[in-house]
Design brief:
The chain is mainly alpha-helical. Helices cover about 55% and strands about 10% of the residues. It is built from four helices and two strands.
């Protein structure tokens, strides 16, 4: 459900609705009218994998420096 997906991604329900509406998160609508949104766990995994942001090496050095490790 939308609520389960939101909890898993640690975001608000409306964020999941927005991701579904924009096509960024694959989902199915089941039922009559607008239907109920269902999101497969595989689709959440795919969304998370595609949403990763790589950390640049220079940023890592700055973080290490802040904690006195460099």
């Amino acid at each position: 459900t939308v609520r389960q997906a939101a909890r898993r991604l640690n975001v608000a329900d409306r964020t999941i609705y927005s991701l579904c509406s924009s096509g960024a998160l694959a989902h199915r609508r089941i039922g009559v009218g607008r239907g109920t949104i269902r999101i497969a766990s595989e689709e959440l995994n795919r969304f998370q994998d595609n949403s990763r942001v790589a950390v640049r090496a220079s940023e890592t050095v700055v973080v290490d420096h802040l904690f006195g490790s460099a």
